[in-house]
Design goal:
Layout: E1 9-13, E2 24-29, E3 42-47, E4 50-56, H1 71-80, E5 85-94, E6 104-105, E7 109-112, H2 140-152, E8 157-158, E9 162-165, H3 174-183, E10 187-189, H4 195-202, E11 205-215, H5 226-252
Parallel strand pairs: 1-4, 1-5, 5-11, 6-8, 7-9, 9-10
Antiparallel strand pairs: 2-3, 3-4, 5-10, 6-11
Helix pairs in contact: 1-4, 2-5
The structure holds hypoxanthine (HPA).
Length: 258
């Protein structure tokens, strides 16, 4: 594959991934958008020969909580940098029994429980009311690439799942998780939305790489601690990094949707 013809891939790093080791950095850009500044500077470089732009969702150092992330600025900044395929890396809680700490999940659906976030570009002074199709919130071609890579690299993973996006920053109650389970959620996180919907509005391919950092509330015999989360990040982030590095060229070779 000739990566010089490839599209730039955007990587949004979440909790535990504020910088991307292995990225051959060629430059950093501090940018702004009509919706303000993104969470961090854009780091440009190449990962295994594939052009990449990296953005840290919570800032670098990590200081912006999930409900205060400027998702519109983040997505527009990546779009303006030429990105048409985005991988959102998210720390998540596991609800499905297979989704244990350090498991990497490539979900296929979303249920949005967030509220009060700036969640659309289609508002304000519009020429026409616009509704995007969001039947498949994650790009299935990009998902397949990540799943095949996880299999090849023998990374503990689940290539399915409904991502329940909660408001945070507090974790959920056990009853909230039971309700989410009844709704069909397999994993829970605080940053999956509106990121995925904004990517769709901009016509970008978007895929989630979720690292399970704890069993969701009430799904284990102990309460959730930051120590547990940090230990799972330390254990599981190498799998995320392996998948990212190995799938980059194939993701870059995808054609732009729009
Ligand atoms: N709930 C919501 N978000 C999360 C969790 C969780 O259990 N773990 C990591 N992000």
């Amino acid at each position: 594959m000739n990566s010089t013809e490839n599209q730039t891939v955007g990587i949004i790093g979440g909790t535990g991934l504020t910088t991307l080791s292995g990225l051959n950095v060629t430059g950093t850009q501090t940018v702004s958008t009509p919706w303000g500044a993104p969470s961090s500077e854009l780091t440009e470089g190449s990962l295994h020969g594939q052009p990449v732009v990296f953005l840290s969702r919570h800032g670098n150092p990590s200081r912006i909580p999930p409900h205060e992330v400027n998702y519109k600025a983040n997505m527009k900044a990546l779009y303006d940098a030429g990105v048409r395929t985005v991988i959102g890396v998210n720390a998540v809680g596991g609800i499905h029994p297979d989704m244990t700490p350090a498991c990497v999940v490539i979900p296929d659906q979303i249920i949005d429980y967030t509220w009060g976030r700036a969640s659309t570009f289609f508002e304000g002074d519009l020429d026409a009311v616009t509704h995007i199709d969001f039947t498949w919130p994650y790009d299935n071609t990009a998902r397949d690439i990540l799943i095949q890579t996880a299999k090849k690299r023998e990374v503990l993973h689940a290539g399915f799942g409904v991502y329940g996006a909660t408001q945070g920053p507090r974790l959920e109650t056990a009853a909230e998780i039971r309700r989410m389970e009844r709704d069909g959620c397999d994993l829970v996180g605080m940053t999956g939305m509106p990121e995925a919907a904004l990517a769709a509005e901009l016509g970008m391919r978007y895929v989630c790489l979720g690292l399970v950092v704890n069993r969701a509330a009430g799904k284990s015999d102990h309460i959730i601690s930051m120590e547990e989360i940090e230990a799972a990040i330390a254990q599981g982030m190498s799998g995320v990094r392996q998948i990212l590095a190995t799938s980059m060229a194939d993701l870059g070779a995808l054609t732009a949707l729009a």
